[in-house]
Write the structure tokens for this entry.
Amino acid sequence: MSDLGAKLLTLLPPETAHRTAIWGMKQGFGPKASTPADPILRTALAGMELAHPVGLAAGFDKNAEAPDALLNAGFGFVEVGAVTPRPQAGNPQPRLFRLREDRAVINRMGFNNEGLDAVKARLEARQENPAPGIVGVNLGANKQSVERGESAEDYAILLKALSGLADFFTVNISSPNTPGLRGLQSGTVLDDLLKRVNDARWAEPVFLKLAPDLSEDDVDPILETVNRHRISGLIVSNTTLARPETLQSKHAGEKGGLSGAPLLEPSTALLKRFRKSAGPDLPIIGVGGIDGPEAAYAKIRAGANAVQLYTALIYQGPGLALRIRDGLADLLKADGFERLADAVGVDV
Ligand SMILES: Cc1cc2nc3c(=O)[nH]c(=O)nc-3n(C[C@H](O)[C@H](O)[C@H](O)COP(=O)(O)O)c2cc1C
């Protein structure tokens, strides 16, 4: 799918456009990276070797339908999911809104996905001929499990079933659209959850994905719990419940998580806060509002070892991955860096 194709898709209702985009990627209509990434971008992330640090965030390919096409389109890594143990329909439609004037999106999808068995079968099928690059799986809890206080069990089931089929996993407790899920981000509940996760995990790195709406006081207790249970790293951040006063779009009042340009500043500030307390060694993936090389570079300088994006793709098309990849190499060189790792956290 070309960038022009992606722009035409924005004329369709959002979910139709999204389904068409996935279909187009599966048919091989996506862009193809014709040149390798500049070696300055090569980096390690929780023991994984990335050719470059620009990744696709969770929620675009929820059912692992097109990870190889997405890697071939120029992402250094792709996170599929969220997958939950049982298939789930999600919230009633409409549940995805474009805030075009704000270069943003509000979604309240509610973990719609085909469930563990379907995703597992697709991940197994791709093992024969995987595209080069890294594939992670975003893990979610079924709505009923969260209601019953049994979400830890869901993450354990998913980790056990999918280990060996992906390069990393993300424990997502920060989606705002499953009532109660974000409550897992603090105190003894987080402690119990991460203990279960650590018991269930196998060899692959496990990241914890956090909400941008956490407060200053949440940072140190989360880091302490993450370290105690040997969680590999953090993803900062998911979508926000905040509604900045600057929003112009008529959809600004919709319920759900806001992503895209208005999320850049608050998610980068939280990332910086985590990097400051964590020190240089904890792997952190920076997400939220990245729409070009400058924003990706700002995340790296604020402490991200790698970055992910989703919303800007809706407006700019899949060629954006390569534009950010190549623009980031230019920005690093212009500032005299010899490798990406040297720029991580320089603004902290
Ligand atoms: C439609 C939609 C669905 C999403 N689904 C998930 C999900 O299943 N799991 C998750 O961790 N994040 C999900 N996200 C959040 C993104 O992965 C990302 O953290 C967030 O959108 C901020 O990045 P962005 O501003 O580049 O979009 C979703 C975002 C959108 C817009």
In short: The first strand starts at residue 43 and ends at 45. The chain has a mean pLDDT of 95.
